[in-house]
Write a structure and sequence with these properties.
heterodimer; A: mainly alpha; two-stranded antiparallel ribbon; about 75% helix; B: alpha/beta; Rossmann fold; 2 domains
Chain lengths: ~270, ~300
């Protein structure tokens, strides 16, 4: 099956059938599936934004003074938008593929492998939307309490930004899902890639590298683009060039990562 | 004769330098069971994976209902039911929901799906578990659900990969009854199994694969006759002349002398049997018709997997 066919499979009904299946399972277990993972960024927000932020002076963000809690609020959108689809596509997809044999059941039907991969990518992105919605609601409450100062009307766009970037993050994670020998090996993509990316991307603190190479590297990092796009909207009401940056880096990740994920999962699942 | 639902010609597949399936032909007609047999590593699984569309063949063709699989793939996959050996039930859903969700993976959609699910729950004796998790099902009922799920979309051909492995004798018989009833209704069935009695009783035709090639094909008794001959003598381990009998038979060309738990099993011709009876008048042995166990042992010995 050609690379182009692997990419266009996103529009096939089979991909959305896989998404629907995962969504139905999620709705059956929504209490355990939503509340604990969505509380993590909220706890981070309270601990870093409010607790730790009390010891930090205001920061200058594109000419506007903002408190640290406001800075972290947008960072948590990016942190959640990255972490949720990334870990969903690492752990949950691995469990469905390896332990539950859900993929084997799907592949015995009219669902083809690229659609299974796309279903997992879309589902990871949807999970990101759900968790970002919860985090955005908490930010709205803190805005009303005067703890942060954001343009509250723009919070409604956050889940959609998260969905776009979430597709890239989930497709990236599926590469590891396809190659790790056992679930314990997930520690490598989690601690060597997930944590650095989610922390050093203008999420919890501004990163201003002197090296041009590092600056260029940051520009192609979709977590950074998501953080800055969210911050631009929430603080200034204008994402600036970061909206284009987010769309560009998403495409830059999504296309090759999806092609590679399909190739690697084909080898792993179908032995071809 | 009815037209074949499945027709494969010259199927060939290699992995690296190893040819796993070597120019294999097979076909399956409505209302018949094709038994696919062979020792471990014979190429059965790879053959099935090519027929499901999991892996493309390196050479050869697959037609479903006369249409090339690679050109009418979606239509062909709509007509295929696959019951894998491994339990791939969706344990996040109830028994009834497993049938409903599985049906959602096919287009055109299943007509009167609710009715179809109720019919299958009833037919496979799963109605009382409809709202329960598959976790509560015994091994036999898990297998029933897997088979029911694989035909929820009313396929024309069903692939059953070792459907009774791990089941107790009673559950095996239940699955046999279900397979037989599906065949009677006109479903074409491709069955792989390691149970020889199962293959003999259920299959209309057998295809024996060895090292990726077809070594025998036809009705079960003809396949056995072709590969093994007329009779098998079984010499118990307590028989003092056991070694002498083995040597005597080998000297007359009997190649497939197998020892199973000390018991000697040798396929022989009618002529050898007459000579043997005259030569070893004091010895004790049994004579029985050859079965597929003998065939498997013979094939495995050829492959160096059974000593």
């Amino acid at each position: 099956m050609s690379g182009l066919r692997s990419l266009t499979a996103v529009a096939d009904w089979q991909s959305w059938a896989v998404l629907r299946r995962n969504a139905l399972v999620f709705l059956r277990n929504w209490r355990t599936a939503v509340i604990p993972p969505a509380m993590e960024p909220v706890i981070f927000f309270v601990a870093f934004g409010i607790g730790f932020g009390g010891y930090i002076e205001d920061l200058d963000y594109r000419g506007v003074d903002i408190n640290y809690a406001t800075y972290v609020a947008a960072g948590l959108i990016a942190y959640t938008g990255f972490g949720t689809p990334y870990y969903e596509a690492l752990y949950s997809a691995y469990v469905r593929m390896f332990y539950q044999k859900t993929w084997d059941g799907l592949l015995a039907t009219q669902v083809e492998l690229p659609s299974v991969v796309w279903g997992e990518i879309l589902w990871g992105a949807v999970r990101g939307m759900v968790n970002i919605s919860i985090v955005s609601s908490v930010i709205a409450v803190f805005d009303l309490l005067g703890i942060v100062d954001v343009k509250i009307q723009f919070l409604v766009f956050m889940p959609f930004l998260g969905f776009v970037a979430g597709c890239a993050f989930a497709s990236f994670a599926l590469i590891f899902t396809a190659i790790v020998p056992a679930i314990d090996h997930m520690n490598y993509p989690v601690f060597l890639i997930g944590w650095p990316l989610s922390l050093v991307s203008n999420t919890f603190f501004p990163v201003e590298p002197q090296s041009p190479a590092l600056r260029a590297l940051m520009q192609v990092n979709p977590v950074y683009q998501l953080a800055e796009c969210a911050r631009g909207l929430l603080v200034l009401g204008n994402p600036g060039s970061h909206l284009i940056g987010l769309l560009g880096t998403t495409a830059l990740f999504l296309i090759p990562c999806t092609l590679l994920s399909v190739r690697l999962t084909r080898r792993r699942v179908l032995g071809d | 004769m009815t037209t074949a639902i499945l027709e494969a010609r010259g199927l060939t597949k290699s992995y690296g330098y190893k040819m796993v399936v070597d120019h294999l032909d097979l076909s399956c007609r409505p209302g018949t069971v094709l038994g696919l047999l062979g020792p471990n590593g014979a190429g059965k699984t790879t053959t099935l994976r090519m027929l499901y569309g999991f892996v493309p063949p390196d050479a050869g063709s697959i037609h479903y209902a006369g249409k090339p699989f690679d050109q009418a793939r979606a239509e062909a996959k709509r007509s295929i039911g696959v019951c894998t050996q491994e339990d791939s039930l969706d344990y996040d859903f109830t028994v009834a929901q497993n049938l409903l969700i599985y049906a959602s993976y096919f287009r055109p959609r299943v007509d009167d799906l609710e009715g179809r699910v109720a019919e299958l729950l009833d037919r496979f004796a799963l109605a009382e578990y409809a709202d329960a998790s598959p976790h509560v099902l015994s091994g036999g009922f898990v297998r029933r659900l897997l088979i029911a799920r694989s035909i929820v979309h009313r396929p024309s051909i069903l692939f059953l990969d070792e459907p009774t492995t791990g089941l107790d004798p009673s559950a095996r018989l239940d699955v046999w009854e279900l397979i037989d009833s599906m065949r009677t209704e006109g479903l074409a069935i491709v069955l792989t199994t390691h149970y020889m009695d199962e293959a003999e009783r259920l299959s209309n035709e057998l295809l024996v694969i060895h090292e990726g090639r077809s070594v025998a094909h036809g009705e079960p008794h003809r396949v056995i006759d072709t590969l093994l001959g007329d009779h098998v003598i079984v010499v118990p381990r307590s028989e003092p002349a056991r070694e002498e009998i083995a040597a005597w038979l080998q000297a007359r060309g009997a190649e497939q002398v197998a020892t199973v738990l000390g018991e000697l099993r040798v396929p022989v011709t009618k002529e050898h049997l007459v000579e043997l009876t005259a030569r070893f008048t004091e010895a004790t042995w049994q004579v029985r018709p050859p079965n597929l166990d003998d065939l498997f042992i013979a094939l495995a010995r050829r492959n160096g997997r059974f000593e």
